[in-house]
Design a protein that fits this description.
Elements: H1 4-13, E1 16-23, H2 28-38, E2 42-49, E3 57-65, E4 82-85, E5 105-109, H3 114-121, E6 127-131, H4 133-141, H5 147-158, H6 163-173, H7 176-192, E7 194-196, E8 253-257, H8 272-276, E9 282-286, E10 292-297, H9 307-311, E11 317-321
Parallel strand pairs: 1-4, 4-5, 5-6
Antiparallel strand pairs: 1-3, 2-3, 6-7, 8-11, 9-10
The protein binds iron/sulfur cluster (SF4) (2 copies).
Residues 255, 276-277, 279, 281-282, 297, 302-308 line the site of one iron/sulfur cluster (SF4).
């Protein structure tokens, strides 16, 4: 386990690298800014955006050192010793461990236990910390914004800065009650983080460019669209919505359709939800009458904006929280 004294020594001669994985709108970039603002030394951060859309995967990079000469590089970070993942749905889409040296720390907002997480990522040589940041965010902030909360977990395992320094950075950036709630949330995250230290020390000298392909060709988002520009419903081209791109699984809710009235549900087939859904995630099929009838909700593309719930005149759509209670597989011995 890293100690504050060890990190202090490392920072004198090395640049420590961090990478944040988030979805557009979750505040991953702000998290990287806050790292630099909370750090007592020299720091630099850069964002990387993909498709400019709320819910799309984003990355941001941080370099920290107490040696001014070592924080000169404006490239993206290729060999991060610490990686923070703000949204658990990214684990299936992005190689979050890319470039991480063995013994690196993977810090993830998830209810999965740490051993399961190692299996999902396919790396047994990484230290893991998990935090149910979504539930803390909903409880304390009232919104699924997990950026400051993941920093509480980062402090717990990295000692790169203190809760007090991060609180000061938050107060400088946010106003009044919002700052106060974020500080409560980071303290809770610090306490609640499940830490799985595999006993392998990370190599802090790694700061080199390593070849890696973040998203392989053929995965959603990298398939060529034969009709570009606008996604629209045309069964001959795209069966429903943006079926080549997971447009945003950011959202804390599963959105549930009750079924057709004729089948015991509440839906009257008014199609208002279909018109308002920004991701065309309302599924329909042609019936024997030649008309389209609602058949469900495409959970892969639904980003839980809840527009459909707000327009449905008969309450045929409801929501339930995606994440269950957190699991902690490995008891900590400190
Ligand atoms: S919550 Fe409803 S409107 Fe929003 S993306 Fe999901 S199905 Fe579409
Ligand atoms: S808005 Fe409600 S009633 Fe209308 S089609 Fe959608 S689920 Fe059915």
């Amino acid at each position: 386990m890293l100690t504050p004294e060890h990190i202090k020594e490392v920072l004198k001669d090395n640049c420590i690298n961090l990478r944040f994985h988030a979805r557009g709108g979750q505040g991953g970039i702000t998290a990287s800014n806050l790292c630099v603002e909370a750090f007592d030394g020299y720091g630099a951060c850069q964002p990387l955006f993909g498709a400019e859309r709320m819910g799309s995967p984003t990355e941001s990079y941080v370099r920290l050192s107490t040696n001014e000469d070592l924080v000169r590089n404006n490239e993206q970070v290729y060999g991060p010793q610490f990686v923070c993942v703000l949204d658990p749905s990214l684990l299936g889409e992005i190689a979050v461990d890319a470039g991480m040296p063995k013994g690196g720390w993977l810090i993830v907002n998830t209810t999965m236990d740490q051993v399961s997480l190692q299996e999902v990522v396919g790396r047994k040589d990484l230290n893991v910390a998990t935090i149910d940041a979504t539930n803390i965010a909903m409880d304390v902030l009232g919104r699924n914004i997990t950026n400051t909360i993941i920093l509480g977990a980062l402090i717990r395992v990295s000692h790169l800065f203190s809760i007090e320094n991060l609180s000061n950075a938050i107060m400088a950036r946010f106003k009044g009650a919002i700052a106060g709630k974020n500080i409560v949330a980071i303290k809770q995250a610090y306490d609640d983080t499940c830490v799985y230290d595999i006993g392998v020390d990370v190599d802090f000298t790694v700061d080199s460019k390593v070849p890696w392909q973040q998203v392989s060709l053929g995965l959603p988002g990298y398939t060529e669209l034969d009709m570009a520009g606008v996604w629209y419903k045309d069964e001959t081209v795209i069966s429903v919505g943006s079926d080549q791109v997971n447009t945003g699984s950011w959202g804390e809710w599963d959105v549930i359709w009750s079924g057709q009235k004729a089948d015991g549900g509440k839906c009257t087939d008014c199609a208002q939800c279909w018109y308002i859904c920004p991701d065309l995630a309302i599924l329909t099929e042609e019936g024997e009458d030649g008309l389209q009838h609602m058949t469900g909700i495409d959970q892969f593309h639904c980003k839980s904006c809840l527009n459909c719930i707000s327009v449905c005149p008969v309450d045929a759509i409801s929501k339930k929280l995606k994440q269950g209670p957190a699991a902690c597989a490995v008891p900590e011995d400190n």
